TrEMBL record:
A Pfam family recorded for this sequence: tRNA-synt_2b
One of the GO biological process terms: diadenosine tetraphosphate biosynthetic process
Coiled-coil stretches: none
Name by which UniProt lists this protein: Glycyl-tRNA synthetase
Length: 495
């Protein structure tokens, strides 16, 4: 646990020190669970978005992209169930003035438990294996809690909390809706609206618009990337749980009866997408949901091994026709698809893939930020961000060996030639060794060094981040060498 805490602390410190992530409103003492992306952070974030977007909309001829608005009609959230169902059970300690989410307390409790038998339910006479006990106990436990809450049996929940010994005395229990409320104000009245808690509903309500304007046939998908807002009670673990974050979601509309086939397809495809980035397979696992959301038939997470353990990175859900049926009911508009081959009209079923962009950012930091010893130099280490080349914020650093006019002239000429093709940095400050370390720390995969020999042979030294290998190449072959390493097509073709 101590080792994991140190790792997360190391990530947070590095992210700030090297211009990736800054605490929001820091000069005013900050704002909890809200962060700003720095000059390198925004480049990395945009590169993740680009790779996801291309893998969805360019590799699949039946997926198109949209961008829906953050503010939407209130009836959308009534139809989707968010106004009635999108809640957390909150424990508030009146002595310490701290808030706790009951489900997270229970999750932590279950992670620490070695024996799940005979705690709340009598399993004495049943010889289950430990994994089944854990899964079954958790499922029963959450069902029991929500049943108690719906029937207003608060004392029963308190009794459970005390029995499990997961919380200190002096608390009250509340049910909190997770949507932020905003108001449209004018002279006559104030209209209450909600900041969207997910992007999915924007795809559902634009189903007819996309179908009519693109002439696309089922099965087809609608992809979008956008900001969402949740009034998280316990926002913690850096970028993992925030109140303002970004989602990359794709809603795939299918014929009823074909949802299982497409659910399995998207589970496999999404894991393949993650693995295509070269991060070790051991960092990923599937986790099937015990307690399904009110709209789901099947649901699983692709979990990632963060410094604080395996947690959800991406969700794949079989949403049935719940959303489309409800929007048809509430809007009084037919949200149907007519299949000319089968001569039937139906409300499509939906398979959803949803990944948190900020969590993906954190997953990359968790797995790629290294501190390693330098070969043949036991007294020195380097911090290196071994990020996949295509995601690197800066692709190439151009470094004159020393700050001399004849060398800087060549360096700036190369910079001017390639700045339209790649994100570059030109750096002539400090020794060449310090500049290499600086580029290693921000993840730059390639450095080009101009030295005095460059004046004679029209060559530069190319240095690769991961291996630190160096070789001389002609200036005329710079582009060819760069393309070998950072062409996004090479990785897209591997999915």
């Amino acid at each position: 646990m101590e080792k994991n805490y140190k790792k997360l602390k190391f990530i947070i410190s590095h992210a700030k020190s090297y211009g990736f992530i800054f605490p929001s409103s820091e000069i005013y003492d900050g704002l909890k669970a809200v962060y700003d992306y720095g000059q390198y952070g925004i480049l990395l974030k945009n590169n993740i978005k680009e790779y996801w977007w291309k893998s969805m909309t360019q590799l699949h001829e039946n997926i198109v992209g949209i961008e829906s608005s953050i503010l939407m009609h209130n009836q959308i959230w009534k139809a989707s169930g968010h106004i009635d169902e999108f809640n957390d059970i909150l424990l508030y300690n009146e002595n310490t003035k701290k808030n706790y989410r009951l489900d997270l307390l229970i999750e932590d409790f279950l992670e620490k438990m070695n024996n799940y038998n005979n705690i709340l339910f009598d399993n004495k006479n049943i010889n289950y294996n430990i994994n089944y006990i854990k899964k079954n106990f958790k499922k029963k436990l959450f069902s029991y809690i929500y049943e108690c809450f719906n029937k207003n049996k608060i004392l029963d929940i308190k009794s459970l909390i005390n029995k499990l010994n997961i919380y200190e005395p002096g608390y009250k229990i509340y049910k909190i809706n997770l949507m932020f409320i905003v108001y449209l104000k004018n002279l006559d009245n104030n209209k209450k609206l909600y900041l969207r808690p997910e992007t999915a509903q924007g795809s559902f309500i634009n189903f007819l618009n996309v179908k009519k304007t693109s002439k696309i046939k089922i099965p087809f998908g609608i992809a979008q990337i956008g900001k969402v807002f949740r009034n998280e009670i316990i926002a913690r673990q850096f970028l993992f749980r925030m109140r303002e974050f970004e989602q990359m979601e794709m809603q795939f509309f299918v014929c009823p009866g074909e949802e299982e086939k497409w659910y399995d397809y998207w589970k496999e495809y999404r894991l393949k997408w993650h693995l295509s980035l070269g991060i070790k397979k051991d960092n990923y696992r599937f986790y099937n949901h015990d307690k399904l959301a009110h709209y789901s038939k099947d649901a699983c997470d692709i979990q990632f091994k963060f410094p604080f353990g395996f947690k959800e990175l991406e969700g794949i859900h079989s949403r049935t026709d719940f959303d489309m049926k409800n929007h048809e009911k509430f809007s009084k508009k037919k949200l149907r698809y007519f299949d000319f081959k089968k001569n039937i009209s139906y409300i499509p079923y939906i398979i959803e893939t949803s990944i948190g962009l900020d969590r993906m950012f954190l997953a990359i930091f968790s797995s790629c930020l290294k501190e390693e010893k330098i070969k043949n130099d036991i007294n020195h280490k380097r911090i290196v961000f071994k990020i996949p080349y295509i995601l690197s914020p800066i692709k190439v650093a151009i470094l004159p060996l020393v700050k001399k006019n004849e060398l800087t002239f060549i360096g700036k000429k190369i910079f001017k030639k390639f700045k339209l093709y790649y994100s570059l940095v030109y750096d002539e400050k400090d020794s060449i060794g310090k500049r290499y370390r600086r580029q290693d720390a921000i993840g730059t995969p390639i450095c080009l060094t101009i030295d005095y020999d460059s004046l004679k042979d029209n060559c530069v030294t190319i240095r690769y981040r991961d291996s630190m290998n160096q070789k001389r190449i002609p200036i005329l072959k710079i582009k060819k060498n760069i393309e070998k390493s950072i062409n996004i097509k090479n990785i897209l073709n591997s999915i």
